[in-house]
Sequence to fold (119 residues):
Amino acid sequence: QVQLVESGGGLVQAGGSLRLSCAASGRTFINYTMGWFRQAPGKEREFVAAINWRFGSTSYADSVKGRFTISRDNAKNTVYLQMNSLKPEDTAVYYCASRLTVGDEYDSWGQGTQVTVSS
Fold:
């Protein structure tokens, strides 16, 4: 059974930093892409960043490019999202998810971690 467990959320002032972690278990992820998504109150869930587990290639939403960095630690089966220069509009619940790299749908999701950025 696949498990994705996020951690690292919290309250931070604008301009500050946080690092989110997603501990993954239950399958071999080498053929998977890991993504971070977020959902703010009253808004739809949106894509933030993704990383190909095998090659380490990454992609980002325009709104976070240059501020957020996604990375993975193969030995720990963990994906990270380093968030710098945080803005109040980054406030949301952040979710980790996985999909087959050759697929379209993210089929496993974590429970989410709250990130709140105060102005």
Q: What stands out?
A: The mean pLDDT is 96. The longest strand covers residues 92-100.
